[in-house]
Design a protein that fits this description.
Radius of gyration: 20 Å
Strand content: 15-25%
Strand order of the largest sheet: 5-4-1-13-14-15
Largest sheet: 6 strands, parallel
CATH architecture of the largest domain: 3-Layer(aba) Sandwich
CATH topology of the largest domain: Rossmann fold
CATH superfamily of the largest domain: HAD superfamily/HAD-like
Helix content: 25-40%
Bound molecules: magnesium ion
């Protein structure tokens, strides 16, 4: 079994904040190992199509110690096989079962609350395929729709909005996969699920009842369930304060923010959301030891 979770001797372990709003960020790093490690992907493990510094070595070291590594993404436009294959191609061999996207969380959410529901999906084909594979019927007949599912949808058109409008006015429930306003892409961004939610809310007056991706409890509960570990024995690592770090903090996990993605040291200093640890890169997750020291840096 792994060592006791993360650095019980360290003053920074377990606290929700390592600095206060407006104060310079204090760069604390773990002094021990956790039993479970949950990683965001883009901006945390890789950026675009390349691993970030120290990511491959750190993941290999954690796994060699028998510690669990799970990857979470809010992006419902790719099946989780896509992410497992990408990690594997980049040198981090990863089984499909170790990836959770907002699509899997939506299936789990519906299975618990509305098994067998008939759905109208404002989303792309991978989400539709996953919902059908889980046994759900998709329909474009508003009177048949039990729940409208809003998502990141680059195939969004007025006809879909009309169906969602009619279905919700006829009593359908309204859920969404993720709360992201846009998805960063090289050179800019693409309008994401929040824009689709806003369109439906604006015309119906309804408010989305649940958004299951990060930072929701649905996402972290599904992830901890997969790990089979209590929150206090896991570390959530991700580059976004409002999603990755917020989700971990609210669920009682220690959190780590790598300064390799969306959040700069200046952003961090100005935020009320403060992670337990701040990392130059994932190499800082490894406590100093003769066999597993952090990579050279600053
Ligand atoms: Mg990210």
């Amino acid at each position: 079994m792994a060592e006791a979770a993360g650095g019980t001797a360290g003053p920074d372990h377990g606290g929700p904040a390592s600095s206060r709003r407006g104060a310079p960020a204090r760069r604390a790093t773990p002094t021990g190992f956790f039993r479970g490690y949950i990683f965001d992907l883009d901006g945390t493990v890789y950026l675009g199509d390349a691993l970030l510094p120290a990511a491959g070595e750190t993941l290999a070291t954690l796994r060699a110690r028998g510690l669990r590594t799970i990857f979470v993404s809010n992006n419902p436009t790719h099946p989780r096989e896509h992410y497992a294959a990408k990690l594997t191609r980049l040198g981090v061999p990863t089984p499909v079962e170790d990836v959770i996207t907002s699509t899997q969380v939506m299936v789990d959410f519906l299975d618990r609350r509305m098994p067998g529901a008939r759905l109208f999906v404002l989303g792309e084909e991978p989400l539709c395929t996953a919902l059908r594979a889980a046994g759900y019927t998709l329909t474009e007949q508003p009177s048949e729709v039990d729940a409208v599912i809003a998502s990141f949808d680059r195939t969004f058109v007025y006809r879909k909005l009309q169906i969602a409008f009619d279905a919700i006015r006829a009593g359908a429930r309204f859920f969404a996969t993720n709360p992201d306003p846009y998805c960063p892409v090289p050179g800019g961004g693409e309008p994401d699920c929040a824009a689709v939610i806003a369109a439906v809310e604006a015309c119906t007056g309804a408010r989305v009842e649940a958004v299951v991706g990060k930072p929701s409890r649905h996402m972290i509960e599904a992830t901890l369930g997969l790990l089979g570990l209590p929150a206090r024995e896991c570390l959530m690592t991700g580059d976004r304060l409002e999603t990755d770090v917020m989700m971990g903090l609210e669920a009682g996990l220690s959190t780590a923010l790598p300064l390799t993605g969306a959040t700069t040291a200046s952003d961090l200093a100005d935020s009320a959301i403060q992670p337990t640890y701040v990392l130059r890169d994932l190499g800082d997750l490894l406590p100093p030891s003769p066999v597993a020291g952090p990579v050279a840096g600053d």
